[in-house]
Amino acid sequence: MAGTDSKFHNGHRERLRQKFLDDKLAEYEKLELMLGYVVPRRDMRPLAHALLKKFGSLGCVLTAPFDELIAFPGIGRNIAIFLKLVHQIMLDGYRGALGNAPIFHDINVLKNYCKWALAGKDVEEFHVLYMDTDYRLIKDEIHSVGTFNMAEVYAREIVKHALKLNAPVIALIHNHPASDKGFSQQDVSTTETLQKLCDDLDIKLYDHLLVSKYSMYSGRDYGFIHG
After folding, report:
1. Which of 45, 70, 89 is where one domain is finished?
2. Number of domains composing the chain
3. pTM
């Protein structure tokens, strides 16, 4: 019986690998195939389905906090580390792309980076991307970490750090982990204050991107960032 199970799992996973090469994997099968490399002698289909039911999508599984993953039945430390490693590798890839090419040449790379950096966070984080004259990323700095619905922003500290890094262009990123709502009035007011300081010091405010629970919003698209 054990030999039959082993043959089934080996054959099933080889079929999954071939479906991957043929670009025909369903989302749960992608997760199942990934998990199979961590636990090679166990049927990972039930766990893949359970994770997707809990977190909603493969992307949400990868960006889920480590503590939530490790507490999920059937995960364990090794699988949680593997999933977060995949998440980190993807984030590093997008960060590298932002450092090698002007950000405005491919706004989707920037948006994907923002999603992978902030999706799944259970508290608000406010990041500042400092860029050079060619809009290449110099540094992504976490400006502040707050609560589930607030993170402090210190506009003068942001422009001071931009001058210190010799970064003539900045972009702002923050998240709303608790809702899918767009910019709050406080977000708009804070951005407008920073816009004035940037204008005075000849620093370009490229955009303010908000990653909410299911969507992404742009301050430039909303009209409260100019220039």
Report:
1. 89
2. 2
3. 0.67
For 45, the domain range is 2-89
Query: What is the Cα–Cα distance from 202 to 204, expressed in whole angstroms?
Result: 6
CA distance to 195, 202, 207, per residue, from 107 (Å): 21, 23, 11
Residues 6+ apart with CB under 8 A from 61: 31, 51, 52, 55, 69, 83
Q: pLDDT 10s per residue in the chain (227 long)?
A: 344 455 556 688 888 888 888 888 899 999 999 999 898 888 899 999 999 998 888 888 888 888 989 999 999 999 999 998 988 888 777 777 666 666 656 677 778 788 877 877 788 889 999 999 888 889 889 899 876 666 788 999 999 999 999 999 999 999 888 777 789 899 999 999 999 999 999 999 999 999 887 788 899 888 898 86
